[in-house]
Design a protein that fits this description.
This protein is mainly α. Among the domains are: about 55 residues, no CATH class; about 160 residues, Helix Hairpins (Orthogonal Bundle). The chain is built from five helices and no strands. The protein is elongated and about 250 Å long. The two termini are about 25 Å apart.
Length: about 450
């Protein structure tokens, strides 16, 4: 602290007066505000208490009203549940009856299907029997027609062969007649040529005699002899020509006869072959007819056997179909029974449970009263602000400084005036130091010194 602080402390001036005055003003204002807050809290407490009891009564009355209304709703819902249960029971019974009727209808349909199948098979069996009879009749008729046809063909072949035989016989007779006529004709032509040649020879001989006679009547000499020789040679040539002509005619006649014989033989051979062919054709036709008849009989029998086998096979198929359909009908009836059982179970599952009437919620109770705590007047506390220290500890450093200054001054004086003066100051300093413990005590230096009283 400075020297001014020590002086103020010694003089008793209070440096914290303004601070304490400000604190007192603040405390008054705070108490006034505390009283106002207390008044507002009391009014708020009373209003809250009033509203609480009003709301408590309203909530209770509302709860009672809702409880009664809820009870009515519960009764109505229970009645509705009973009605739904009764309706469900009616539907269940109707569904059970419907399942029975459906099962009976389905079983009747299965039985009817078997009956329809049996009736259809009966018609099929009748149709197959009729088809078999028709096939037998048809094959018998075809066989009879085939036999008639083959017999007719054989008879026609035989008749045709007879006609052909007559024709070949006539042809053979014509060949023989033609050969005889041809032979006679050639012989006749040869005879005529021979006669003609003979007549020509005779005419040539007479002509040569006449020429020889004329030549003999001529003059004797070489010319006469030449004339006779020429006449004789000419006659000889003519005779030779006539002989050659006759020989060629005979050869031609022989060739014609040979050709006629050969052609006639060939024709007779052809006729024989034709007759053999006719006989072979008749035999072949008879054998073919027998074979065709046998083949037709076998084919007809095979067709009849095939038709009979087909009827037997179809009957087996119908029997197997009937057995399969019967087994399937039994399985279908079992399946229908299972379906009915499943439908009954489903109907039972869909059946509503009988509604149980539960106790309604407990009646509403008044809630416990709330505990209200009255507001209290709070104490006002104003914290103290910073203070200037006014005790001895605050002035001790200053006093020590002053003492040090004084000691220094005393030393200077001692040096200036001598040791006695210094001793007097030392005594005074000691006295000041020994009394230092009482500095700041009340009543030592006056009532203003010491710690302030609040």
């Amino acid at each position: 602290m400075s020297l001014g602080g020590v002086i103020n402390w010694i003089s008793g001036d209070d440096p914290n007066k303004e601070a304490r005055a400000a604190e007192r003003d603040a405390k008054k204002a705070a108490k006034k505000q505390a009283r106002a807050d207390y008044s507002y809290a009391k009014e708020l407490h009373e209003a809250e208490k009033k509203d609480y009891f009003a709301n408590r009564e309203f909530a209770y009355n509302t709860a009672v009203t809702n409880w009664e209304y809820g009870k009515k709703i519960q009764d109505y819902q229970y009645a509705q549940s009973l009605a739904v249960y009764e309706k469900s029971e009616d539907i269940y019974e109707g569904q059970i009856d419907y399942n029975k009727q459906a099962e009976a209808t389905a079983v009747s349909d299965q039985e009817a299907s078997i009956q329809d199948l049996a009736l259809s098979q009966a018609f099929q069996r009748e149709a197959m029997k009729a088809d078999l009879e028709n096939e037998i009749k048809l094959q018998t008729t075809d066989l009879a027609n085939k036999i008639k046809s083959e017999s007719f063909n054989v008879m026609t072949e035989i008749k045709s062969a007879g006609i052909n035989k007559l024709e070949q016989g006539a042809k053979l007779y014509g060949i023989k007649s033609g050969r005889r006529i041809g032979t006679e004709s050639v012989q006749q032509a040869l005879n005529e040529i021979t006669k003609k040649n003979t007549f020509e020879k005779e005419a040539k001989f007479i002509e040569s005699l006449q020429k020889s006679g004329k030549a003999a009547l001529g003059q004797a000499g070489v010319s006469r002899e030449k004339s006779l020789q020429s006449t004789a040679a000419s006659a000889f040539r003519d005779l030779v020509v006539l002989d050659s002509s006759l020989s060629g005619s005979r050869n031609k006649a022989a060739v014609d006869l040979l050709k006629l014989q050969v052609d006639a033989s060939i024709a007779e051979t052809q006729v024989g072959l034709n007759l053999d062919r006719i006989r072979l054709g008749v035999t072949t036709a008879q054998e073919r007819s027998k074979l065709n008849i046998n083949a037709a009989q076998e084919q007809a029998q095979l067709r009849i056997n095939a038709a009979q086998d087909e009827v037997k096979y179809n009957n087996k198929i119908l029997d197997a179909n009937m057995q399969s359909a019967t087994s399937q009908m039994i399985r279908n009836i079992d399946q229908i029974a299972l379906q009915k059982q499943g439908a009954d179970l489903q109907a039972q599952a869909n059946l509503n449970l009988f509604p149980e009437e539960f106790d309604y919620a407990p009646e509403p109770q008044m809630t416990p009263e709330r505990t209200f705590v009255k507001p209290i007047m709070r104490e006002v506390y104003i914290p103290k602000g910073p203070r200037v220290d006014t005790g001895f500890s605050s002035v001790a450093p200053g006093l020590l400084q002053i003492a040090s200054t004084a000691i220094g001054a005393a030393g200077s004086i001692k040096n200036l005036f001598g040791a006695g003066a210094a001793g007097g100051f030392n005594t005074a300093t000691t006295a000041l130091g020994s009394g230092g413990g009482s500095i700041g005590g009340v009543g030592t230096f006056g009532p203003n010194f010491g710690f302030p009283v609040t």
